[in-house]
From TrEMBL:
This is GMC oxidoreductase. InterPro entries: 3-OH-isobutyrate_DH-rel_CS, 6PGDH_NADP-bd, NAD(P)-bd_dom_sf. Keywords: NAD, Oxidoreductase. One of its GO terms (biological process) is organic acid catabolic process. It comes from Sinorhizobium americanum. Pfam families: NAD_binding_2. The lineage of its organism: Bacteria, Pseudomonadati, Pseudomonadota, Alphaproteobacteria, Hyphomicrobiales. PANTHER family: 3-HYDROXYISOBUTYRATE DEHYDROGENASE, MITOCHONDRIAL, 3-HYDROXYISOBUTYRATE DEHYDROGENASE-RELATED. Residues 2-126 form the 6-phosphogluconate dehydrogenase NADP-binding domain.
Length: 170
């Protein structure tokens, strides 16, 4: 499986390095090409746009600063949605709300989407542990384990009653 990673900032950059270290063929994109220097030296391939990325990969992981940045990655003239997304898997790790994600993924008719928001501020005995908030269909989560091997982490499942945007503990 080929994985694309969009967003190589403090958290995304390290997450992408872990994917590369795991031996997964990885394509990278960031608004600042210099953010990819280490990734490229580790064997990742640079792409010039999100649209170009979707044509090379089976799975795209995005880890961005917030919802406006995520919207731009998807909907800009060179965004993911401007390319052929059919049969692709998209794992978004941008911290956002379930309501925002529900609205955002409506155009993804033929794409499996996993919303796995990252929250670094939830207290933990391990200060280096990142918390992932995952909203998924079981089949998408299972499929997502191929490019991103499962690790032992605590998780929080979003309330699924449709009326609330909050998570419950694992």
């Amino acid at each position: 499986m080929k994985v694309g990673f969009i967003g190589l900032g403090t958290m995304g950059g390290n997450a992408a390095k872990n994917i590369i270290r795991a031996g997964v063929e990885t394509f990278v994109f960031d608004l600042r090409r210099e953010a990819a220097t280490d990734h490229l030296s580790m064997g990742a391939t640079w792409v010039d746009s999100q649209r170009e990325m979707i044509s090379h990969v089976d799975c795209v992981v995005s880890m961005l600063f917030g919802p406006p940045h995520l919207d731009a990655v998807l909907n800009s003239s060179e965004g993911l949605l401007s390319g052929d997304c059919r049969g692709k898997l998209w794992i978004d790790m941008t911290t956002s709300s379930p309501r925002f994600m529900r609205d955002l993924i409506k155009p993804f008719v033929s794409v499996d989407v996993i919303d796995a928001s990252v929250i670094p501020s939830i207290p933990s005995a391990n200060i280096n542990a990142t918390t992932f908030m995952i909203a998924e269909k079981a089949s998408d989560l299972i499929r997502g384990r191929e490019p991103l091997p499962a690790t032992k982490v605590d998780y929080y499942r979003a309330n699924t009653d449709g009326n609330h945007d909050h998570a419950v503990g694992s």
